Amino acid sequence: MSAPAIKICGINTPQALDAAIAARADYIGLVFFAKSPRNVTMAQAAALAERAAGRTKVVGLFVDASTDFIAEAVVAAKLDAIQLHGAETPDALGRTRANLGVPVWKALSVASRDDIVRAQDFTGAADLILFDAKAPKGANLPGGLGLVFDWNLLAAYRGALPWGLAGGLSPDNVADAVRRTGATLVDVSSGVETAPGVKDAGLIRSFCFAARSA
């Protein structure tokens, strides 16, 4: 099995970006969600994207954002893909994808087998499904909480779309996650931080090394 693609999400400083690039991460994620400790402004996103240009791909994360706001970010940060973490329906997601002309990743919160099966509804509307752990009721954030779901549930996925794994991944468990699930993309945020929104270069390096050694 070939090594999975790696995404370091919640990049919000040049230092964190440089660490991800040095560790050869395939993607970095910029969070456009005001409630998140990893949130970036349009100006910050544009500067980070310019620094990343040609060295890693940039994915923008949004939660129930307007199409106009997403379109502005796509242009400002020259996004290679957008990742939607809200309550978007397949129809709405398909329209967003058609209007913006960039690949769309749909994040699905997983707590049961039914959540995995639901991914099939997005065939033809999304380019990739990202399975993430379901946040507790009342949580302010849909992800980045360090929660892990039961990876055995992924056996229920029969969809045609490629998929990635998120939710509680860290340097300590990512190799096991890749071996057990066969994930072709792994996405980490809080698992390479020393505090919410504070990335650690050593943890990023360790995560990427572990993911590739699975």
Feature tags:
single chain, 214 residues, alpha/beta, TIM Barrel, two-stranded antiparallel ribbon, 7 helices, 31% helix, amino-acid biosynthesis, TrpF_fam, aromatic amino acid biosynthesis, N-(5'-phosphoribosyl)anthranilate isomerase, isomerase
Strand content: 15-25%
Specify the number of helices.
7
The counted number of beta strands is 10
Radius of gyration: 16 Å
In brief:
The protein is α/β, with parallel strands linked by helices and 214 residues long. It has helices at 14-22, 42-52, 67-76, 90-100, 113-117, 174-181, 201-213, and strands at 5-8, 27-32, 57-62, 81-84, 104-110, 128-133, 163-165, 185-188, 193-195, 198-199. Helix 1 runs parallel beside helix 7.
List the helices and strands and how they pair.
Elements: E1 5-8, H1 14-22, E2 27-32, H2 42-52, E3 57-62, H3 67-76, E4 81-84, H4 90-100, E5 104-110, H5 113-117, E6 128-133, E7 163-165, H6 174-181, E8 185-188, E9 193-195, E10 198-199, H7 201-213
Parallel strand pairs: 1-2, 1-8, 2-3, 3-4, 4-5, 5-6, 6-7
Antiparallel strand pairs: 9-10
Helix pairs in contact: 1-7
Task: Please characterize this protein's 3D structure.
There is one protein chain. With 214 residues, the protein is an alpha/beta fold. The protein has one domain: Aldolase class I (TIM Barrel, Alpha-Beta Barrel), CATH 3.20.20. The protein is built from seven helices and ten strands. It has an eight-stranded parallel beta sheet. It has a two-stranded antiparallel ribbon with strand order 9-10. Helix 1 packs parallel to helix 7. The longest helix has 13 residues. The radius of gyration is 16 Å and the shape is globular. The N and C termini lie close together (9 Å). The mean pLDDT is 93.
